[in-house]
Write a structure and sequence with these properties.
- With 410 residues, the chain is α+β, with helices and mostly antiparallel strands.
- The N terminus is likely disordered.
- Helix content is 65%, strand content 12%.
- The chain has a 4-stranded antiparallel sheet, with no helix packed on it.
- The two termini are 34 Å apart.
Length: 410
C-alpha cells in the first residue's frame, strides 16, 4: 500500500494535468507570438495608410489678412477660404512597387507568425516527452535505491556477526549516496522542464501522458514557414529597389481649387469692397532630370540589400534540406533503439521471472530478487525513453518538412 502511495505521489500527471494538444494550444498565448501578431497587424495598418495616401485628397483652408496701409488691390482687411482636390495620376511606377512591397511584407510577417507558433509547438513537444522520460528514469532510480538499501541492510547484519568487512559496507553506502544524488539530479531536471514549460505556455501546468505524434515520412521536402518568410522578405526588398527607379520618371498630378474671397476696403477712393469666388483646375508635371546620382545610388543600395538577403535565403534553404535529411536519419536510428530496448526488456523480464520463482522458493535472497526487479525497471525505463525520443524525432521531421505540427498530435 505504501509503495502504491509513493508511486501515485511520484506520477500525479497520470491522473491530472494537460495533454500535449492542450499544452500546444496554451503555447499560443506566448509573448513572442503576441509580438509577431502585433508586427503583422502594424504592417497591415501601415499598408492601409499608404494606400489611402494615393487616393484623391481634399483639403480646406482659410486666411485673414489685416494691413496697416491700403493700396489698390490690397484692402484694409480680407478673408479667403479655399478647398483643393488633388490626385496623383502617375508617379513613375512607384505606387505599384510600393504596394507589392507591403503585400510581400505582410505575407512575410504572417509566415513568421506561423513559424513562431510551430517552433513553440516543437519546443513543447520536446519538454513534454523529455519530462515523461525523466519520470520513468526517476521511477527506475527509486527502485535501484530500494535494492541498494536492502543490500546495505544485509551487509550491516553480516558486519555485526563478523562475516564481512567495514570497507564492503562503506562501499555500498557510497553507492546508495551516489544513487540518491542522481535521483536529486533527475528531480531537478524535472523541475527545470516544468519551469521552462510554464515560461513557454504562460502558466503553471501538470503533464498528462498518453499523447502521440502521427508518423509523417516523405521524400518530398516542404518549405518551412521561416524560409517562406525570408522569401517574401526578399521579394519585398526587390520591389523596394524597383520603386527607387521611379525617380527617373516624371510625376503627373491633377488638382482643382475653389476659392472664395471677401475684400473689405476702408477707403472707397482706393477700392470697392466685394466678395467673389474662383475655381482653378490644373494639370501639373514635375520631373527631376538631374540629382547628382541620387536615384541611381538609392536603387543600388536597395538592390544590394536584396542580394544580401537572397544569399541568406539560399543558405537557410540548403541548411533546411540538410536538417531534414539528418532528422530522417535520426528517426531510423530511433527505431533501432526501440528494437534494442525491447530485446533488453525481454531479457530483463525473463531473468526477473526466473529469480522471482527462486526467491519465492527460498533459493536466492531478497538482494538478488531486488536487483532483478531493478534491472527490469531500468529496461522498462530505457524502452520508454527510446519511445519518447522517437516521438520527438517524428515531430522534428514534421517541423523540418514545413508542416503544422499541431495537426499531427493525437
Amino acid at each position: 500500500m505504501k509503495k502504491n502511495f509513493v508511486f501515485m505521489m511520484m506520477v500525479p500527471f497520470a491522473l491530472f494535468g494537460a495533454n500535449l494538444s492542450e499544452l500546444v494550444e496554451l503555447s499560443k498565448n506566448n509573448k513572442m507570438i503576441d509580438a509577431s501578431q502585433k508586427v503583422l497587424d502594424a504592417t497591415k495598418a501601415e499598408y492601409k495608410s499608404v494606400k489611402g495616401g494615393y487616393l484623391p485628397s481634399l483639403s480646406i483652408g482659410a486666411s485673414y489678412q489685416l494691413r496697416d496701409k491700403e493700396r489698390l488691390g490690397s484692402p484694409d482687411n480680407s478673408t479667403a477660404m479655399y478647398g483643393t482636390l488633388s490626385y496623383t495620376i502617375y508617379d513613375g511606377g512607384a505606387r505599384g512597387d510600393i504596394y507589392d512591397t507591403y503585400e510581400h511584407s505582410i505575407n512575410s510577417a504572417a509566415e513568421s507568425l506561423a513559424d513562431h507558433k510551430n517552433r513553440l509547438a516543437l519546443q513543447v513537444v520536446n519538454y513534454y516527452y523529455t519530462y515523461l522520460s525523466l519520470v520513468s528514469q526517476k521511477e527506475a532510480k527509486m527502485k535501484e535505491i530500494e535494492q541498494l538499501q536492502a543490500q546495505q541492510e544485509r551487509l550491516e547484519r553480516f558486519l555485526d556477526v563478523g562475516t564481512t568487512t567495514p570497507d564492503e559496507v562503506q562501499l555500498i553506502i557510497s553507492n546508495v549516496e551516489s544513487a540518491n544524488v542522481m535521483l536529486h539530479e533527475i528531480e531537478l531536471n524535472i523541475q527545470t522542464i516544468l519551469h521552462n514549460l510554464e515560461y513557454t505556455v504562460g502558466k503553471s501546468v501538470d503533464i498528462s501522458e498518453g499523447s502521440t505524434i502521427k508518423e509523417f515520412i516523405t521524400k518530398e521536402q516542404g518549405l518551412r514557414s521561416d524560409i517562406q518568410a525570408l522569401e517574401y522578405q526578399m521579394q519585398a526588398l526587390l520591389s523596394t529597389a524597383s520603386s527607387k527607379k521611379s525617380g527617373y520618371y516624371p510625376t503627373l498630378t491633377i488638382s482643382d481649387t475653389y476659392s472664395k474671397y471677401d475684400l473689405d476696403y476702408e477707403s472707397s477712393a482706393i477700392g470697392t469692397s466685394e466678395d467673389y469666388s474662383q475655381n482653378v483646375a490644373s494639370l501639373n508635371l514635375t520631373w527631376n532630370i538631374f540629382s547628382f546620382g541620387e536615384t541611381k545610388n538609392a536603387y543600388q543600395a536597395s538592390y544590394q540589400r536584396y542580394l544580401a538577403l537572397k544569399s541568406e535565403y539560399e543558405y537557410e534553404k540548403n541548411k533546411a534540406s540538410v536538417d531534414l535529411r539528418l532528422a530522417l536519419r535520426s528517426y531510423d536510428i530511433g527505431k533501432l533503439k526501440i528494437a534494442s530496448a525491447n530485446a533488453g526488456l525481454k531479457a530483463a523480464t525473463s531473468a526477473y521471472e526466473a529469480i522471482k520463482s527462486k526467491f519465492q522458493n527460498g533459493i536466492v535472497d531478497n538482494v538478488a530478487y531486488l536487483e532483478a526487479l531493478s534491472n527490469q525497471s531500468d529496461a522498462q525505463s530505457a524502452l520508454k525513453t527510446a519511445q519518447y525520443d522517437l516521438e520527438i524525432k517524428k515531430a522534428n521531421i514534421i517541423y523540418y518538412n514545413g508542416k503544422t505540427l499541431e495537426e499531427f498530435i493525437k
